[in-house]
Structures are given as structure tokens and as C-alpha cells.
Amino acid sequence: MAYGFEVSTSDGVKNTFNLTTGRLIRLYNGTSVTGSAVISEFDSSKGEYFYIQKTYSLYEQIFTWDNSTKTLTWAKHYSPFYGSPPDSSYSSDFYVAFFHNK
Amino acid sequence: MAYGAEILNQSGDTVFSTEDPVFEIIGKGTVTLSYQFSSSVTHEIWSDPTYGSYSTLSGVNGYINTNSIGTWDEDVLTLYEVLSGQRVYKWGTESSSTRYQYLFSFGQTSVRYVQVRPATNITAPTSGYGMVFYDSSGNPTWSADKKVLDNVQPLSVTTTTNRWYYWNNGTAITSGSTFGLQRYRGIRGTSTGFVKEATNFSNYGVASPAYRDLRLYGSFDRATYGFSANIDWNQI
């Protein structure tokens, strides 16, 4: 083998040649309704992030990622006709999981 | 990396590194949608906020409260299988204090699920054979006898092979005069991959949800985050 890892098992030879696992790079705990955070170890070209509800909320914030500054920003929804929901509709204690699959 | 072990695949992508936990498969099961939508009415699926078109709904469909399935913890993620041509949505909350989540499907009478959690501190075998990796804190993060999630892709990548999905419940907002917050987020399986969708159920004046229609806001799917995987059900 040229690379990776290969093991002989009772089911035959297993190797890592074509595996594509997901690896949790960072589990960030957001503690405000709106805000931002720098996640220096995450690269959006290698994976993605997703919200995990930690405490109850009616809605989930909108998240945006700037890969050049490694900054995650979250905000409430907004409509020019109706404005935004109240802060109480959102959680100030949630997780954002960052994972790489490359 | 400064220490520990790292394993690459043939594309040079990292498969495993000592400090980044992979997703360990901890269970699987099947959710049967016991509450069937009424077949005595013709349901309509409206597409996009313009309400410019709709199609009628056919096939078996239903919903169920998933409160009691599998393992519940804030770091446990449940992936659902979405078959080609079918739709699966979820709504509700699954927090550390409250678990109140509904699963809806159009086309599937039951939905298979697989639960995973980050392998931050797995139970390593104390006998037998194989290999175990530990992180810098001394916690076992990889063991030869554990099953981990493979073929993981971000939801931004549409694949034709993956049909298992984890996605956030999410909230999307429409703009203009069609203001609304869509709290049903879902996945539609297609022959060429999948489509992320945000929905609301209409006909709220109707007493029973079984008679409500589905209103799609496919243009506002950008707030749906998660990942997909290709799982061999018989191997886990």
C-alpha cells in the first residue's frame, strides 16, 4: 500500500483508501441571541457547520460564515415589512458544530 | 498536527486524527408514521413564495412524534433516510431540557434512522484484539471495534449515493409581502441527489392536521445545515 491504513480482519482486508469520515473540529457554545465568533481551525472548503439546539427556542438564528476572517456571525431574521421577532424567540445558549470531511 | 496519529485516504483527505473525533454510530431503528394524512382529500404542494404553481400530493404520508425514539442527549445526532422521490421533514425542538419533535414524511410510511455522537470518549475494549487511539487527554477516540460514519458530505454538496441526512430544524424567513417563518425543514430525495426545503402547512383553519396542505418555500433553504452519509444498514 502507498498510503493510509490497512488491516487484515476476520472479514478480509480493510483499508482507508476510500473512507470519507466526518470529524468534529469544534463544538462552539453560543451564549447570545446575536453575535459573532472566530473559529480559526475551521475551513469551509473542507466541511460545513450546523446548529444544535441546546435550550428551547421558537426559532433558530441565521448563520453566516466568512472563511477569510474565520468568523461565524449569527443574527435574527428580518423583514422590511414586519421587522424581526423578539429576542425571546431565540436561544442565547446553543451549539454550532463544525466538521471537516477532508 | 504536532503529535498523535493521522490517517489519510487515497485523495489525501484526513480520515482520522487523534484530536478530532469522528461520528460513532450508537444505534439505529425505524420510525413508523402512525398518523396518516387523510386520503379522502387532495393535498396540494405549493412551490415557492410566489404561489405560482402547485402539484397534487399522492402516496402514503404521515407524521409522528419522535420523542421516544433512540437515545436523547444534546450531542446525539439522528440521521434519517430519505428515499428518492420522497420527502421527510422535521419540526420542533430537541434541546437538553425539552424534546418535542415531529417527523413528517410524504411518500414513506416509515423512516429508518441512525444515531451518532462525536467519539470524544468511547468505551475502549478491555480484551480481544485491534487498535485503540487516545487523545492528548487520555480519552479513547477510536477503536477498531467501533462503527463510525463514512461517506460524510456537507449538505452543500449534493451526492447521488448518499441518502441519509442530519439537518437542523432551522428557521427560514420569506421577504416582501409573503412574510412568514417556516419552521418545518426537510429533505426531498431526487434521482440526481436531494433538495433542501423549508415548509409550512397551510389550511390552518382545518381542525385536523391530516387535512392540511403543504406549502413549500424552496427558495429559502439556505438556513438548512447538516450533512449526509451513505450508510449500509446491514453493516451497522
Folded structure, characterized:
The complex is a heterodimer of chains A (102) and B (236). By secondary structure, chain A is mainly beta. In chain A, 0% of the residues lie in helices and 42% in strands. Chain A contains no helices and 8 strands. Chain B has 236 residues and is an all-beta fold. Chain B is 0% helix and 43% strand. Chain B has no helices and 21 strands. A 9-stranded mixed beta sheet of chain B has the order 4-7-10-9-18-19-20-5-6, with no helix packed on it. Chain B is globular, with a radius of gyration of 20 Å. The two termini of chain B are 31 Å apart. The interface between A and B is large, with 45 and 55 residues.
Chain-wise SSE layout:
The complex is a heterodimer of chains A (102) and B (236).
Chain A: E1 6-9, E2 12-15, E3 23-30, E4 35-38, E5 47-52, E6 62-66, E7 71-75, E8 94-100
Antiparallel strand pairs in A: 1-2, 3-8, 4-7, 5-8, 6-7
Chain B: E1 6-8, E2 14-17, E3 23-32, E4 35-36, E5 44-47, E6 53-56, E7 61-65, E8 77-81, E9 87-94, E10 99-106, E11 110-118, E12 132-134, E13 140-143, E14 153-154, E15 164-167, E16 172-173, E17 181-182, E18 184-190, E19 193-201, E20 214-216, E21 226-229
Parallel strand pairs in B: 5-20
Antiparallel strand pairs in B: 1-2, 3-11, 4-7, 5-6, 7-10, 8-11, 8-15, 9-10, 9-18, 12-13, 14-21, 15-21, 16-17, 18-19, 19-20
